[in-house]
Structure formats: structure tokens, C-alpha cells
Write a structure and sequence with these properties.
Distance between the termini: 40 Å
Structural class: alpha/beta
Largest sheet: 8 strands, mixed
CATH topology: Rossmann fold
Mean pLDDT: 93
Radius of gyration: 17 Å
Number of helices: 10
Helix content: 25-40%
Order of helices and strands: EEEHEHEHEHHHHHEHEH
Low-confidence stretches: 1-6
Number of strands: 8
Shape: globular
Length: 283
């Protein structure tokens, strides 16, 4: 099984409300590490991992002058177990994101995430008062409250609750209806989580809450959005809606099939979106 490449890292742990989070600043091979300088704090989505964020974002962000800091969400990877769906409410993830930000040396210039991580990033700025220059939302999944029992996230939640994580992984390993890069990424990520915590995280997506248009419009900083066509779990229409709701925003569209050439394409799109809403350190 091919796993997502994970560069060497600087690691530490952050504790909030009894939950320990495994935080990392990935290094970039062939490039000197930075102990100071502005940071992009990026959270992954449900079922994903900090390793995926490192693979997709570390090089493009470093080239733009930003340090990447990421972490395994509660119940994921090397962070603490979180086996109740209540543990995975967007408010909990937003508070975790703010706690990680408080532990970082240097200015947090960008707060962002992918999918659920994007939802939490907006909530961390609007409700937790997390300060930054821009919010990065990659692949937002929905707006407002999802309808219980509807959509691909509800279907995934139902499947994992019914058959368990191991059988979902077995299906993904032979699934021919999804792109190779996505299959490999999901298998690698799902295999690295506590099964009960992963079930809780995915179950929380069914009927889960995301920022609504009013909350997105209340962001005090610009919103950089990355969307793609072809993924029903992260419809491009949602990305457009988020940009339209923001007081200041910009959308970059990445082709879903482009990721076959490397997940770094997502990070490149993120840097392009961020550059459109404000100057980056390297400019």
C-alpha cells in the first residue's frame, strides 16, 4: 500500500479540555527550515491527516514565504482518541484550532483548512477571535447545517457505522470508480486512525454544522477559497457560494484530475488564492 509521503517534522503537543493534539511544522527537503517568520496554520478534514496536509501544502507555502503548521485533528492519527460524535462538532474543532495557534512561535498570517478544516477555520476566526491576515478555505463541503441522511457525507457515515472501518478500507483498496490518488490517500489515512474515533468523526458529518452565509460574511479578513469540479462531497457550487458570501474573497478552481499528478496541486491552488487576496511574504 502506497502511503502519503511525510517529510521530517518539528513536533509538539497541545492540550485543550483534556484532549491532546499532535502538532507539527513539516520541513521541506532541500530547503532550510525556519524558526521564525509568518505561519499558515492548516487543518485537515474528517478522516484525513496532518501527513496529507504536509504533502499538499509544505512546498508551495514555503516557496511563498510562509511556514506551514498543521496537526492531527482530535480522534485522528497521533492525537488523542475522540470516540463520541459530540467530540467532533465544528465548535470543538474551532477551539482546538485556536489552541494550536496560541502555541505557535511567530505570527499566524493565514488560518485555513481542507473540508471540515475549512469550516473550523472560519468558525475559529468568527467565534474564537483568532487573528490572522486571511482565511484559506479549501474544498468547503456545505454551507449552514447539512440535512441529516442526505448527501455523500451521510452515505459515508452510514457505511462506516454499518460495516466498520476495516471493511470500508477493503472496499476502497479495490474501488475502481474513484481516482487512484484519492483511493490511496483515503486508504493511507483511514488506516492510521483509531477505528472508533474515525467512525465518530465521520458520523458527525451527517447533519453537521458549517458556517452559514451570515457567518462567512462577518469574516474581518479576506477569504481565499479553493474548489474543484467533479467531487460531489465538495461541490464547486459551495466554493462559489462561500466566495459570494464573503465581504472580500477570491476563488481558484483546481481540476480534480490534476491531483493525479500530485496532491501538491492543491497547495499550489491555495497559494494562488492567497496571493489574490493579499500580498504574501515572498512577494
Amino acid at each position: 500500500m502506497k502511503r502519503v509521503h511525510e517529510p521530517p517534522r518539528r513536533e509538539w503537543r497541545v492540550k485543550r479540555s483534556g484532549i491532546e493534539l499532535a502538532v507539527a511544522e513539516p520541513s521541506v527537503p532541500g530547503r532550510s527550515s525556519r524558526d521564525v517568520g509568518p505561519v499558515a496554520l492548516i487543518a485537515h478534514g474528517a478522516g484525513s491527516s496532518a501527513a496529507f496536509i504536509a504533502s499538499a501544502f509544505a512546498r508551495p507555502l514555503h516557496a511563498s514565504g510562509l511556514r506551514l503548521v498543521t496537526y492531527d485533528l482530535r480522534g485522528h492519527g497521533r492525537s488523542a482518541l475522540a470516540r463520541s460524535s459530540d467530540d467532533h462538532h465544528i465548535d470543538e474543532h474551532a477551539a482546538d484550532l485556536a489552541a494550536v495557534a496560541a502555541s505557535i512561535r511567530g505570527e499566524v498570517m493565514v488560518v485555513g483548512g481542507v473540508s471540515l478544516g475549512a469550516h473550523a477555520a472560519v468558525r475559529a476566526v468568527t467565534r474564537e477571535g483568532l487573528s490572522c491576515h486571511a482565511v484559506l478555505a479549501c474544498l468547503p463541503a456545505w454551507t449552514g447545517k447539512a440535512t441529516p441522511g442526505e448527501g455523500p457525507h451521510a452515505a459515508t457515515a452510514a457505511e462506516v457505522q454499518h460495516v466498520g472501518v476495516s471493511r470500508v478500507i477493503a472496499r476502497l483498496q479495490v474501488e475502481s470508480g474513484i481516482p487512484r490518488w484519492l483511493r490511496e490517500t483515503l486508504v493511507a489515512a483511514y488506516s492510521g486512525h483509531d477505528p472508533a474515533s474515525l467512525i465518530a468523526a465521520l458520523a458527525a458529518l451527517d447533519g453537521g454544522e458549517a458556517p452559514n452565509r451570515i457567518e462567512i460574511g462577518s469574516l474581518p479578513v479576506p477569504l481565499a477559497v479553493v474548489g474543484w469540479d467533479g467531487d460531489p462531497g465538495h461541490p464547486i457550487e459551495v466554493a462559489r457560494e462561500w466566495v459570494g458570501a464573503a465581504a472580500s474573497g477570491h476563488l481558484v478552481t483546481v481540476e480534480f484530475d490534476d491531483m493525479e499528478q500530485g496532491v501538491v496541486r492543491l497547495g499550489e491552488g491555495a497559494v494562488e488564492a492567497l496571493a489574490a487576496v493579499g500580498p504574501l511574504p515572498a512577494e
